[in-house]
Amino acid sequence: MTVELTAHDKTTIRTAAYGAVTLMSYAGIAGSAHKVATDGTLALTAATGAVGHVLAEKKRDFKLQAKSSAALADQVLPALTDSVKLLEAQDPAEAENFRRTITVAIAAANRAHRGEPSPTMADMTRKITEALDAA
Fold it and tell me: In which domain, by residue range, is 15 found?
């Protein structure tokens, strides 16, 4: 099935994906926020399908509200839910691809620290997963 995405749809997907990684870097500030962001972002480059093409465009058509973790979450968590909904409406398989892409990026971000994720990173992972599942 072909997925037809508007410019707004693509912006929403990019905001959701890169924003989720940024949220993880906020949660991982006690360790190395830079390593968390790097590992998560590199995982996004492995995305395939329509989502992979959108993320590969690397357009800077979005601005993350990164003044605080709360402001960023207010922007990113709804974008995650909206991205799943808009993809689900066109192609359920592509919506699942988006979920997997974000899940892999979050897992990569969590691996940036040795051992188990910190409680703050585990909680942020839960919030991101809930936003993906809310669609």
Answer: 7-133
